[in-house]
Amino acid sequence: MVPGCSAARDHTFLLLVDQFIQTIVDSVTLGSVYALIALGYSMVYGILKLLPFAHGDVFMVGSFIGLGVLKAFGGAANPTISIWLVLVLMALAAMAGCAVLGVAVERFAYRPLRNAPRIAPLISALGTSFFIAYSMQLLFGANHRTYDTFTMAGGKLFLSGITWGPLHVSLVRIIVVVVAVVMMVVLWLLVSRTRMGKAMRATSFDREAAMMMGVDVDKVIVFTFVLGSALAGIGGVLFSLRTDVYSQMGFLAGLSGFTAAVIGGIGSVPGAMLGGYLLGLVETVTQTYISTGWSNLFIFSILVAFMLIRPSGILGKAEIKKV
Amino acid sequence: MKKSVVTLGIAVGAALAAVAGASANSSAPARQTSGASCAKTITIPLLSVLTGPAAFLGNDQLSWAKLAAKQEGPKLGHTFNIVGVDTQLDPAIAATAAQKVIANGSYVVVIGPATSGGSAATSKAFFDAKVAHISPSATNAALTKSVGGKAPTATAAFYRVVADDSVQGTRDAQYIAGTLKAKKVAIIDAQEPYSVGLADIVGTYLKANGVTVQRESVTNNTTDFSAIVNKISKDTDVVFTPWQVASNAQVLGVTLREAGKAAVVFGTDGTDDPSSFKLAGSFVSNFGPDISADAAGKVYVDAWNKDNPGKTFSAFGPPAYLAAQVAMQAITKACKTNQNTYATRASVFSLVRNVKVANPIYGGAFRFSTKTHDPLNGSFWLFQIGSDGKYKQIGKLGS
Q1: Distance from the B319 Cα atom to the nearest Cα atom in chain A, whole angstroms
Q2: What pTM does this model have?
Q3: If you measure CA to CA, which chain B residue comes closest to A281?
Q4: CA nearest B179: which of B21, B64, B333, B285?
Q5: ipTM for the complex shown
Q6: Which residue, among A93, A137, A5, A110, has the nearest Cα to A53 in the 3D structure?
Q7: Which of A36, A225, B133, B166 is the most exposed, having the fewest neighbouring CB atoms within 10 Å of its CB?
Q8: Which residue of chain A is at minimal alpha-carbon distance from B8?
Q9: What is the tens place of the pLDDT at every residue in A289-321?
Q10: Which domains occur in chain A, in start order?
Q11: What is the topology classification, in CATH, of domain B36-163+294-367?
């Protein structure tokens, strides 16, 4: 064997390994945001059997609220208080603002149609989605904006982090993943360990029976929207730390969240998390190893395939029909 | 039940998409054949991207065309009004908008559409209605020239006041290979005519000149560039981005820096937006120079600032002033041939080609080529983004 050839082969192999690990890191970052959006879809579906198409737009509003808070404190380059505190305030404001928006959407767009034929709330959800997106466009214009995260703390968010050989996991990616995982753990504890969580599960299982057992279903539904919308709000802020902010961004994000929820098993909280990470993985791997141009085609083909082969998703359970 | 609701959701989405597609392809409405009254205010529609991710360019074009109507109209002895018609970044929406414009018999000439895709999608309808359309920014070479043995994608109704991609692509590639001395270049197109055409021209030139070229593709809606950046090797010198969403170029550049990759981002006119794309060291080529750099151009800039206080404009604006000048001169000539009564579509259609603008916004003189409906001796200019985010004009490309 020629020694030079062996060294070159080893170098190529290391580059491929580096690229693969970086792909996994990228997919976990993207998947974390998708999981946060998918959770809202899944929880609302679980409780109301309704697809909340406006959920992506709530995510977009969260992103804008984050931008508003950032601007209020002087912007990314010259904040009037510590930039880390600004980031925390952006997240909290987005969660609070989106929770209020989610409750308003439930109250005015979904609740009046709760007992209407199934098509009515679906159309109402679509209409609400367009209403929110175009209201934001009228209010703030159509231009893309950014948090200008690259100028925050002298670029520290992007340039510092964990570096291991050629692999670099930036601080902003670590923040996105850690915050998303913490949010999911909190949600999991809320749903599985609290009285309200038990009420949510009961309502999801059988709304009428839960009502007869004394569960305040209206309160449970409102709480579900608060939770789902708050997660979408913080998801919007986390997403926009690495990309831009614009009024129509909710459509594709919502579609991705919906796809993740369906793949994971719509109605299932762990399914939504799994679906989010799987979608992030499929998207990133497709773009890296197959084609960047064919990525969306591939993703939505998977959605169709799931609908045909396993409509209940990976962790969803097929419902038993009473006859 | 679960399956049925989800299936219903997908079906509703598909139905909405089908309805949108059907409306875009609906048959032409009834057309009026009257013209524009020369004695009254003459309205010229401007088809551009007024909403969506590239709305900045349409709003810039509209404000500059309005300034042209205000300043140049009185000199021509007429009162002109410019109205914006939104095409978004979607050729199908442009086609629908064109039908609405054609249906209004008082519109005798059109400024736009702004994009190459929109221009190709509307040109046949404008030709059939004998409405000349003059684009201030559609640069796809195939609109007016035979590319790859195929007929031009636009008709004889189409004109443009800016140089095309074959000029831009070749000059950009010459700069990348010659001045920047790049050995490895990644070219990322955005899967639409303007972007793919420009990417092809640059790729072909670079390959022919011994540069290693990596070709990738995204869409205008792509927001996460991690996977693409992961595919770009550290020894890549330049990433060429012929896109229409400037903030995407910024996100790509930041993602490159995040990954420790030093490749220079080289954008084209679609990414020329100082408010969004401000990554230091990056390049942007555009069909218009910085008109505020000389005294003659500054007069226009001051007038625009007066009408648009507190706002800024990109390089997309000033060419719309020129396109409006061409349209207004053609209408004025058509009025003269008809005793200043009516300007008809047919007369304007035949007169646009011979319009000569003695005092164009860029200085010199403007007229169309005798061979194509492109400007004679059209050029491109290059800018580099400084550490303060400002665009510094490097000079005219290829000169």
Answers
A1: 21
A2: 0.78
A3: B227
A4: B285
A5: 0.83
A6: A110
A7: B166
A8: A119
A9: 888 777 788 888 888 888 898 888 888 776 655
A10: 30-140+148-280+289-309 (1.10.3470)
A11: Rossmann fold (3.40.50)
